[in-house]
Amino acid sequence: MSAGSFGFGRRVAPTAIILAAGLVLLYVFLYAPILYVVYTSFATDVVWPFPLDFTLTAYEDLFASSLYGEALSNSLKLAFGSAVISTFLAAGGAIAVLRYRSRRRGLVMFLFIAPLFVADLLIGISILAFNARVLGLPGNLVSAMAANAVQGTAFGFLIILAQLVRYNWSMDDAAMVFGAGPLRCFAEITLPTIWPSLFGAFLIAFILAFNNLEITFYNLGAIPTLPSVAWGSLRFGLGPELFALAALVNAFVFAIFAAMYGLMKTGLVKFGYRGQ
Amino acid sequence: MPNAALELDSVTRRFGPVIAVDRISLAIEQDEFFALLGPSGSGKTTMLRLIAGLEQPDEGQVRIAGEVVTDLPPYRRGVGMVFQNFLLFPHKTVAENIVFPLRMQKMDRAQQQKQLGWILELLHLQGLEARYPNELSGGQQQRVALARGLISRPALLLLDEPLANLDRELRSEMEVEIRRYQKELKIPFVYVTHNQEEALTMSDRIAVMRNGRFEQIGAKTEIYTNPASAFVAAFVGHANRLDGQLSEIDGGLARMNWAGGQLLVPRPADAKSGDRVRYFIKHEDLEVTAAGLNGGGLNGHVANDINQVSGTLRDIIFKGQTANYIITLPQGTDLVVSDTPRTITLKPSDPVIVRWPAGSGACFAAEGA
Ligand SMILES: Nc1ncnc2c1ncn2[C@@H]1O[C@H](COP(=O)(O)OP(=O)(O)OP(=O)(O)O)[C@@H](O)[C@H]1O
Ligand SMILES: [Mg+2]
């Protein structure tokens, strides 16, 4: 063992200590507020929860309220629909950008990710105004899915592109020579190789839409989603059930990633293809 | 006459200003092993891709077994292909890779398995069926790629430098094997390579390609012994190159002034006295002996229909069955003589004489002269 290991009587390089401390601080910065919310969700007094007086009333209140149940179901539908749209558009875009060489490739790519630089509020209001005034469409779950897919597509595009640049398109040539038509080729060769990135794009788009307040709010109005119900109930103060809700949403997202990690570790699912 | 297995009719393919394949016409017979030999960028891969349907010709026609396929997509042409970097499907097992063409043909499963068993045995791949490509050695991957190309007994097998990624020993082993499969299965092979030894070992007929055109096309012995141009003479086999000027034409032969002496060389077509020429003589056509009693000082001399040159042995490069003797001539150029290493007992810096039959080798008008 060399310097940098934290053992008795062993020399530890000062730089290693500084780096480790920096890392710890970074994690505190990232996760302390979230851990605080989770911790507080189990407290009787949410204003000053120290020391912890353990209770589950916040969760009981949350589950007792029918509003949250309906909001959850809407949020899940919205997130799923938006993720499906985003993944399709992002995959199509990324494949087209890589397969068909163009001198304007840079511009094409930029236009795909540009929505990431537009504020949620603006996207929400613009889409509402455009749908209502120009297209004469009412705000509903479908238009909210489409609106959320704007950013989902941009993120998905980046994720899929990152894996697709390493994809060897000659593989499709080989499949075609051996008798596979274009669709067969995609299903047999391209998809099995790139599906992890499609799955990644789907997850990100799902989580983005699930958590989104502004874009969804302007396109749904009175239809409740989890973020809008939470936002609405803020008017009556920071209630305990909001802590419980926040804790559950975080647990849900965390569980998805933990499951993915577990699948990868056990080798049950291989993300990325068996490269040479 | 039955239809040729493959016919190209004045096929051209351009990429912007580059003419990758330039009005190529070609007919390949049913059980022929045909090699396309040429340096990098000469258009070999483009030609294979045109035959496979992965590229569309700008002009000309492609026929496979008499049928015009110019407008057919690759998946309707029924050819097999072995790619330079194998291009095995990484997420499929060896068996899945190999039966892929049969599955695309919707052959029934029992028949697929039968064919698979046959090809696995032919290519010594038994026991590897369940592995993934990244769990195979280079040589095994090569065999799998070959098996995938051959399993459906295609009308034609195209091979694009299939041995380029293998080490030397494996390569020479596979050269013999691939030729054996071709002869056994009687499927026409079009084999692309930039390695002249590979082309010479394996093929029946060779086309030497340069800048999208055929420099020469013919039986391999013909290409080797009777090159049609300076390019072919330099590219096929190992030859010494001597630049000189013709002084005297004598029927099919000519005298070439070279380094202060004279050599008797074959007369290039339409050559006149005074023309600048480039003369090629293969390493193995030369013979080296110790200068001995009749002494040095023979700088280009013809006696009894023998060309003779004297020089100093600079180095001997042992190659196993043969050795290359590098001889420095008085005016500074080098000649390479290939001979059996046992025959002579020469040491570096010995004075030597190099001899070869007058009129052998190949001579061409100097390019751009
Ligand atoms: N898709 C393409 N776009 C533009 N130019 C191309 C393309 N494919 C080939 N070329 C050009 O056509 C010419 C012939 O290329 P080709 O790949 O057929 O050569 P090759 O004989 O196979 O060479 P190598 O031995 O290096 O594989 C080259 O000048 C190449 O740059
Ligand atoms: Mg090539």
Please name the defining characteristics of this protein.
heterodimer, A: 276 residues, mainly alpha, MetI-like fold, 11 helices, 0% strand, globular, disordered N terminus, disordered C terminus, B: 369 residues, alpha+beta, Rossmann fold, OB fold (Dihydrolipoamide Acetyltransferase, E2P), six-stranded mixed β-sheet, six-stranded antiparallel β-sheet, 21 strands, 23% helix, elongated, binds adenosine-5'-triphosphate, binds magnesium ion
How would you characterize this protein structure?
The complex is a heterodimer of chains A (276) and B (369). Chain A has 276 residues and is mainly alpha-helical. Chain A is built from 11 helices and no strands. Chain A has helices at residues 14-40, 57-64, 66-99, 105-113, 120-135, 141-164, 170-177, 182-211, 214-220, 226-233, 240-266. Chain A is globular. Chain A starts with 13 loop residues before the first helix and ends in a 10-residue tail after the last helix. Chain B is α+β, with helices and mostly antiparallel strands. Chain B folds into 2 domains: 6-231, Rossmann fold, CATH 3.40.50; 239-365, Beta Barrel (OB fold (Dihydrolipoamide Acetyltransferase, E2P)), CATH 2.40.50. In chain B, the strands form 4 sheets. Chain B has a 6-stranded mixed sheet, with helices on both faces. In chain B, strands 15, 16, 17, 18, 19 and 20 form a 6-stranded antiparallel sheet that branches. A 5-stranded antiparallel sheet of chain B has the order 13-12-11-14-21. In chain B, helix 2 (94-104) runs parallel beside helix 4. The two termini of chain B are 45 Å apart. The mean pLDDT of chain B is 90. Chain A binds chain B through residues 168, 170-171, 173-181, 184, 188-189, 192-193, 273-276, and chain B through 52-54, 73-75, 77-81, 83, 85, 87, 89-91, 100-101, 104-105, 132-134, 148, 152. The structure holds adenosine-5'-triphosphate and magnesium ion. Magnesium ion is lined by residues 44-45 of chain B.
